[in-house]
Design brief:
- The chain has four helices and seven strands.
- It is an alpha+beta fold.
Length: about 180
């Protein structure tokens, strides 16, 4: 009886240790959107994402046309109390871009080249829909934005980490004509 209990206990402990080793690599870090956007875009603004637009005034050019390397500044809302920032990694058209950002679909994770579509009535990027991993599409939520903050330089080359969520394949499938919402 004691031998059986000891064997089961050893098995459970070894399973837990194995799962822990694969669940969180030693280099894993919880990423917030603002520090990550600052790192990859070179836009040196600190603080919560909802303050980036006003902090950029007089320091960086701002506007309503997407450019590679620019940061799209999302307004604060009841769902995003401190706003959100995401870097434009590719301009697909005047109403569609691919974004690279952290802490959107899954807490602390990075997503690269995810689809964002301008759904504002005036076509000025003041309202967008963004690809959301758990839903596998753009979904039904639209988010208010302030506009783009331009870095004036090329974005940094991103180093992939084991804990990053790479959503490139999903983004490509979404632009290939598959349904936008599920």
């Amino acid at each position: 009886m004691i031998k059986a209990f000891a064997a089961r206990f050893a098995l459970v402990v070894s399973c837990v240790l194995t799962m822990a080793a694969f669940a969180a690599p030693a280099s894993a870090a919880f990423l917030q959107c603002a520090p990550y956007a600052r790192q990859i875009s070179g836009i040196d603004i600190r603080g919560n994402a909802d303050t980036w637009w006003s902090q950029a005034a007089g320091r960086y050019e701002r506007g309503h046309a997407p450019k590679v390397g620019a940061v799209l500044a999302f307004a604060a809302s009841h769902r995003m109390r401190v706003g959100h920032v995401a870097m434009v990694s590719k301009v697909v058209s005047d109403r569609e871009v691919l974004l690279t950002h952290a802490n959107w679909s899954r807490p602390g994770r990075v997503e690269t080249d995810v689809r964002a579509v301008d759904v504002s009535p005036a076509g000025d990027w003041t309202m967008v829909k963004v690809w959301y991993a758990p839903q596998g599409g753009l979904g039904t939520s639209a988010y208010a934005t302030r506009g783009f903050i331009y870095s004036g330089r090329a974005p940094r080359v991103e180093v992939e980490t084991p804990d990053a969520v790479i959503a490139t394949a999903a983004s490509v499938s979404m632009t290939a004509g598959l349904p936008l919402e599920r």
